[in-house]
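Human:
I keep going back and forth on a fold encoding question. Comparing notes only helps if you start from a blank page. Show me how you would write down a chain together with its backbone fold. Write it directly below this note and I will take it from there.

Assistant:
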Amino acid sequence: MRGVVKSLGGKTVVDGIDLTVGTGEFFSILGPSGCGKTTSLRMLAGFLTPDSGHILLQGADVTSVPPYRRDVNTVFQTYALFGHLSVAENVAFGLRRRRVPKPEIVRRVGEALELVDLADRPHAKPQELSGGQRQRVALARALVNLPKLLLLDEPLGALDLQLRRQMQQELKRIQREVGITFVYVTHDQEEALTMSDQIAVMNRGRIEQVGHPREVYDRPSSAFVARFIGTSNLLDATARDGSLVLGSGTVVADRPSEVAREAAVRVSIRPEKLALADPGSVDGPRLRARVQNVSYLGVITDYRLETAEGVQLTVVEANPGGQAGGKRRAAGDEVDVTWHPDDVVTLTS
């Protein structure tokens, strides 16, 4: 997508997107409702035409090419299966419209159903299947055409949590096996982090950051990305003499190359990168705070704290197993919150 702009109802929904997806990647477009991700997907599919800019598929400009002439298939959240057709007939539908020879249809439908673990249900009707199985039929119907690009518009949104997590792993397995480029639209951060080779985070029609899931999570480029993907402690700081300094005078990190000039900046520290210690028991950067709330969440404990200056902090600690140590804090305890300077991220916006 090169300089793609699209307005709907007098409002700019996609505002100058530049985006490159590598062949064979599982690429996710992640963002909140109304950010423009589904509109972007619909332009890739050919259902919408950009007001300006270009869309290229393996080097060919397809900006004005209608959907049926693009080598692209789409899987929707609703699946859009034909209730009167069997599983095999649903999967074969596109091949029959293209007048593919019957022996090849039989072979390719069989391979597609094998791929999605439905080889034993070719004669079942969609209403006889579970939600996860119907999702697999929709996926097989799209894959059987061997498109250059497969678009997926929140296809797991109607599934319950356990099945959704199972299907995340299945989708990634299938994508690796077929080697087709997937572009996946979602508002679910866990889905994007779990499945993607690359993630583009969208906000208000623009792309805030593109990168590997670990990069986007560990090194967010903006406050929006830091907040939207996971949880983050956002702190106001001042760049001074090569260091990042909080209002209390605490040096958060030394960054001579980043903060050569004095300026107000924002920094992000993920909750799991912070640690709790008894007051005065550790050296290095730290903030004195009081525990306000403790939430035991099984694998982790979530602490909410506040400094004397009113700075709110969230700290997440893994719960030790067996007889392992680990000090449990309670509401009202005074602690030092500590971190490693390398885990402090300076935000650009």
About this structure: The two ends are 24 Å apart (CA to CA). The chain is about 25% helix and 30% strand.
